[in-house]
């Protein structure tokens, strides 16, 4: 391909391959504002914030969707362009509620940031405003169309990354609105509550449904025993909101913060992850050795489960029956831990700190109830916990480290990597190898299922006779491809599949801090694998607390007691088979 020589803001650049003006500008450290642009989806150019002047073209062009050509002379910040951008922001503000002081996105709003950059201090345009009803029907998210700036990021992510197609831009002109089919509520739509739309929304048009007040009320109630568990990826992401570099592990400080907030016991969900691996590894081995339904699909992701139940219920026989680590941990807290501490299970209020908005959906599933008690009573996303910590006046950066409470605080490196795509599969393969061979695998790291690729395939040798064809998938559009393959007869002969709804895994969950750069996600994943590398125990079956749990309470892998507390079932939602 011929090289291209262009000039951008006086800089001469030689390009080896075709790029957009925006890509070139970012590589050269030139700031061009955007509102609709996302690197991972096709550009729409709808917001026009990124317009630039190109010599020879009479009208400004959108930098996000205009490819450079040889000899192009580009100016990104002329007085004309400055005026256009400022006017766009003023027009958006003219139709915005302007309730910044009590909006959850105050201080974290891209429209607010642009208003500051372009020094907008008053209303230049007066007129009618769109008034649409607030949609609070979902158990996980709230939709406020009045704060929507029609950037279509949510639509693009839902369509191209997740292939759920729950929302779209409808009507025209002043009446334009992003909504679900037939203007139904989010609860009535095909939404799987993954939260990726919330993660990319530049304003407060899409936010998580918060229950912080319910958690605070229970913390203040002396008659309630408050316990909390923290998901594996949280310790590598929450620090970003307190000034730490992406990927910094702050688990010890987080335990201290939760104790100071008033929680009676703080547990590591990695214990639940190790427990999940014990049951899931055992299930996988039994399916292989007994010629039962294969491939087996790992099931820790509630957004994927909802997607499967709606779109591919015929694959239910392939699903592992194991609960997620969150629900397993909750069940054990309200049974084993309650028995050991002489606590009344009915008085336990179990909170889970999760990277995922769909965990709020998981909390309410009727199959995740044991002995009349829900496994989990409340779910807070990472972002909700950040706000709660700040409300309690706690500076995370200045806290000393503390340890998780025993006996549900002991964990392994295998459980820690659950937060990254491929981590569940790798942890299960480590224990599956041990179950078959009665010894640990020599090379602990399964590199083939690591990394940020959305579809990772590997052939894993358990014995000379058992070679597993594995695939780890993240992003529901990619999951759809694998599910379609299974419907076609499994041409790749997969035997073990891991699916996570969010691209890259839980490190990029819908409830995580809004790090939209791939580099941030890579640092988060790197942190989890580094923790695994440095753990003294890297196999779930070597977790001594898990071993004691089986010896004293669950008896053995796959026992009746284990199935009662640790396994679940699924529903065909496609034909109306609701819970």
From TrEMBL:
Annotated ranges, domain 4Fe-4S His(Cys)3-ligated-type: 80-119
Top-level taxonomic group: Archaea
PANTHER family, sorted: NITRATE, FORMATE, IRON DEHYDROGENASE (PTHR11615)
Organism per entry: Candidatus Lokiarchaeum ossiferum
One Pfam family from the record: Fer2_4
Keywords: 4Fe-4S, Iron, Iron-sulfur, Metal-binding
The protein, known as: NAD(P)H-quinone oxidoreductase subunit I, chloroplastic
Chain ranges of the 2Fe-2S ferredoxin-type domain: 2-80
Necessary cofactors: [4Fe-4S] cluster
Positions of the 4Fe-4S ferredoxin-type domain: 139-169, 182-211
């Amino acid at each position: 391909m011929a090289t291209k020589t262009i000039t951008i803001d006086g800089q001469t650049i030689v390009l080896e391959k075709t790029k957009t003006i925006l890509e070139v500008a970012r590589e050269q450290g030139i700031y061009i504002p955007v509102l609709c642009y996302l690197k991972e989806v096709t550009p729409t150019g709808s917001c026009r914030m990124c317009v630039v002047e190109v010599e020879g073209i009479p009208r400004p062009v959108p930098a996000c969707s205009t490819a450079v050509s040889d000899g192009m002379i580009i100016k990104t910040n002329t007085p004309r362009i400055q005026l256009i951008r400022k006017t766009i922001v003023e027009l958006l503000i003219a139709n915005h509620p302007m309730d910044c002081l009590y909006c959850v996105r105050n201080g974290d709003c891209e429209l607010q940031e642009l208003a500051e950059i372009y020094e907008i201090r008053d209303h230049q345009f007066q007129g009618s405003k769109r008034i649409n009803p607030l949609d609070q029907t979902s158990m996980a998210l709230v939709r406020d169309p009045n704060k929507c700036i029609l950037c279509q990021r949510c639509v693009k992510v839902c369509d191209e990354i997740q292939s759920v197609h729950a929302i779209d831009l409808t009507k025209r002109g002043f009446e334009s609105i992003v909504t679900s089919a037939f203007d139904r509520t989010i609860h009535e739509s095909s939404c799987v509550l993954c939260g990726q739309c919330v993660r990319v929304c530049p304003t407060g048009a899409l936010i998580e449904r918060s229950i912080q007040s319910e958690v605070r009320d229970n913390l203040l109630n002396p008659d309630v025993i408050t316990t909390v568990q923290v998901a594996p990826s949280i310790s590598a992401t929450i620090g970003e909101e307190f000034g730490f570099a992406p990927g910094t592990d702050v688990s010890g400080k987080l335990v201290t913060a939760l104790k100071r907030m008033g929680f009676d016991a703080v547990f590591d969900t990695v214990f639940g992850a190790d427990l999940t691996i014990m049951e899931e590894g055992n299930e996988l081995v039994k399916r292989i050795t007994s010629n039962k339904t294969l491939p087996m699909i790992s099931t820790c992701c509630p957004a994927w489960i909802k997607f499967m139940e709606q779109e591919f219920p015929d694959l239910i026989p392939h699903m592992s029956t194991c609960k997620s680590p969150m629900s397993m941990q909750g069940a054990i807290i309200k049974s084993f831990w309650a028995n050991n501490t002489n606590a009344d299970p009915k008085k336990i209020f179990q909170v889970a700190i999760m990277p995922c908005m769909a965990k709020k959906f998981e909390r309410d599933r009727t199959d995740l109830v044991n002995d009349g008690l829900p496994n989990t009573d409340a779910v807070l996303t990472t972002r909700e916990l950040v706000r709660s910590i700040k409300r309690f006046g706690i500076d995370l950066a200045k806290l000393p480290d503390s340890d998780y409470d025993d006996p549900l605080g002991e964990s392994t490196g295998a459980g820690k990597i659950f937060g990254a795509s491929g981590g569940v599969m790798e942890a299960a393969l480590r224990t599956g190898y041990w179950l078959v061979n009665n010894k640990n695998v020599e090379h602990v790291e399964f590199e083939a299922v690591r990394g940020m690729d959305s579809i990772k395939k590997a052939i894993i040798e358990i014995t000379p006779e058992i070679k597993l064809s594995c695939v780890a998938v993240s992003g529901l559009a990619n999951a759809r491809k694998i599910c379609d393959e299974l419907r076609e007869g499994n041409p790749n002969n997969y035997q073990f599949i891991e699916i996570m709804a969010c691209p890259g895994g839980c490190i990029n969950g819908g409830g995580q801090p809004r790090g939209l750069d791939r580099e941030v996600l890579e640092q988060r994943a790197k942190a989890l694998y580094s923790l695994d590398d440095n753990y003294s125990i890297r196999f779930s079956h070597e977790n001594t607390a898990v071993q004691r749990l089986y010896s004293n309470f669950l008896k053995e892998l796959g026992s009746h007691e284990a199935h009662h507390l640790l396994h679940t079932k699924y529903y065909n939602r496609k034909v109306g088979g609701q819970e």
